[in-house]
Design a protein that fits this description.
Order of helices and strands: HEEEEEEEHHHEEEH
CATH class of the largest domain: Mainly Beta
Number of strands: 10
Number of helices: 5
Shape: elongated
CATH topology of the largest domain: Pnp Oxidase, Chain A
Helix content: 10-25%
CATH architecture of the largest domain: Roll
Distance between the termini: 36 Å
Strand content: 25-35%
């Protein structure tokens, strides 16, 4: 049994499918490209596109080639003022089975049926392709709708605690680190961006155990702060 406060498995992190679902869950806008026309869809707040976008398996045969192609593009931007704020890009590609409906329309009736071809997640680590079964089975991260508010609150009101977390970074940061900012937060942990004069590096600090819902986040974050206070090495970044 792992004691509370012991680090989780370092490799524990969202799958590509989970990251895609989380980006969609928290999306404020997207770009839809169909029949050569690009449309900026805004005001997605609180309306996961997956609720109105019905993805269907590709049918055998060549009939799909005669259906209008559609490409949905989402950009995941860090809520904090880090360098290079684009954390990932998500693209869902397919062909329309029904006429395209405005996914941001607050009518409760708009929906689009789409023959799924592929979903892509592009990050600094590379491009990951996700199939329909994997995407359907994945759950959005429980913190996704709250992440932006939680990270900005941490940075604006508790900068000293962000700096405190540097004690958990291994190897210990050097004087080359000019600034540390929270970059991402998910059910597995928090990611810090350590900015240097030239470039930056991201460090993931895992929670003692993955979260099942947002109500557990307070205790897990406090566990990281407690673990940091127990570390003796001094950081070189001013609070």
């Amino acid at each position: 049994m792992r004691m509370f406060g012991a680090p989780a498995t370092p490799a524990a992190r969202p799958t590509a499918a989970e990251r895609i679902r989380s980006v969609l869950e928290a999306a404020h806008s997207m770009t839809a490209v169909t029949e050569g026309v690009r449309s900026e869809v805004r005001h997605l707040d609180g309306a996961d596109p997956m609720g109105r976008l019905h993805l269907h398996p590709a049918e055998p045969g060549g009939e799909a080639e005669h259906r209008p192609a559609i490409r949905l593009e989402f950009t995941d931007i860090a809520p904090t003022p880090v360098r290079d704020r684009v954390r990932s890009r998500v693209t869902v590609v397919g062909r329309l089975l029904t006429p395209y409906s405005d996914l941001s329309a607050d009518t409760g009736t708009g929906s689009t049926c789409m023959e799924f071809q592929r979903a892509e997640l592009e990050t600094a680590e590379g491009v990951f392709h996700v199939g329909l079964e994997e995407l359907d089975a994945a759950r959005p991260d429980p913190l996704a709708p709250y992440e932006a508010g939680m990270l900005t609150h941490l940075l604006d009101d508790h900068q000293d605690l962000v700096t405190l977390l540097l004690r958990l970074v291994q190897p210990a940061p050097t004087a080359a680190v000019l600034r540390v900012l929270p970059l991402a937060l998910d059910r597995y942990g928090i990611t810090l961006r350590l900015e240097e004069r030239r470039g930056h590096r991201d460090v993931r600090l895992p929670f003692p155990s993955p979260l099942d819902d947002v109500e557990q986040s307070g205790a897990q974050i406090q566990a990281l702060f407690s673990a940091a206070r127990r570390r003796s090495h001094r950081n070189t970044l001013p609070a």
